[in-house]
Write a structure and sequence with these properties.
96 residues, alpha+beta, Translation Initiation Factor IF3, four-stranded mixed sheet, 4 strands, 39% helix
Length: 96
């Protein structure tokens, strides 16, 4: 992913509300399933890591991204953004 594409996705993710919340239990199979479903429907999702979580936001985002085949677009503080294109019905068109 190029820096221009990453910047475009960051702009799209700005108004989104976090839909994934990692707490003291860390990343669970249910959270991975939720991320999988959300990425299929939306392609771009935001997640938040609570203070009680055992891992940092970057580690949590990368763990979920690796499990669902997505890319970490951005990590700011305790918030991370994931992107995965839907191969059947793409919603987001990335700039070249």
């Amino acid at each position: 992913m190029t820096s221009k594409q990453r910047a475009y996705l960051r702009g799209l993710a700005n108004p989104l509300e976090p839909i994934l919340h990692a707490g003291k239990g860390g990343v669970s199979p249910a959270m991975i399933k939720q991320a999988e479903d959300a990425l299929t429907a939306r392609e771009l999702i935001k997640g938040k890591v609570l203070e009680t979580a055992p891992a940092a936001a970057r580690e949590t985002g990368e763990e979920i991204a690796a499990a669902v085949g997505a890319e970490v677009v951005q990590v700011i503080g305790r918030t991370f953004v994931l992107y995965r294109a839907n191969p059947e019905e793409p919603v987001i068109r990335l700039p070249k």
